[in-house]
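Quick one, tokens below:
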């Protein structure tokens, strides 16, 4: 569909400019600073939704004459990466839960040594915790998949290669615009 073709170019160009902003600001100081536009979390969320929908529809829609999925695969993948990054950034900036606030605390502050008087006061409470019924022990032994930890490595990798992903997204957007009938872009 022509609409998603245009959105794919738009999402990858703007997302690429956002990702590669530090690199481009050094090389081209007069380039518009896209990061300032995305200072508002609402604009990030709307852009993330548009990028996600675009990436999803590029994968599932095939126009007659196209090779199934291959024609838009790279640009769809970069759109989805942009979507996930913007969603994560929006959610973590607006999150007020205890887990997010605990991540903001300096790790050394959490490992403070308690004075002896406080240790003695906490001892009876710890003994009560150890005396939990045996029925609850199997529940605690269930292995949980830490989704946040798995996603954390994904976002760490994106942060590490943010400039490269941004330049790739810009290049794909330009190539997709200039050569719309080429199968591999």
């Amino acid at each position: 569909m022509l609409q998603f073709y245009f959105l794919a170019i738009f999402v990858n160009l703007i997302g690429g400019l956002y990702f590669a902003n530090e690199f481009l600001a050094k090389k081209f100081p007069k380039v518009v600073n896209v990061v300032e536009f995305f200072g508002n979390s609402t604009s990030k969320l709307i852009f993330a939704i548009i990028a996600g929908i675009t990436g999803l529809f590029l994968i599932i829609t095939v126009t007659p004459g196209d090779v199934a999925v291959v024609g838009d695969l790279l640009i769809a993948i970069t759109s989805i990466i942009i979507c996930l990054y913007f969603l994560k950034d929006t959610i973590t900036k607006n999150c007020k839960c205890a887990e997010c606030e605990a991540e903001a605390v300096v790790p050394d502050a959490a490992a403070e040594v308690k004075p002896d008087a406080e240790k003695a006061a906490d001892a009876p409470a710890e003994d009560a915790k150890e005396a939990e019924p045996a029925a609850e022990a199997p529940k605690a032994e269930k292995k949980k998949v830490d989704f946040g930890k798995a996603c954390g490595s994904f976002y760490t990798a994106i942060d590490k290669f943010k400039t490269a992903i941004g330049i790739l997204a810009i290049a794909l957007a330009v190539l997709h615009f200039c050569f719309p009938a080429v199968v591999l872009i």
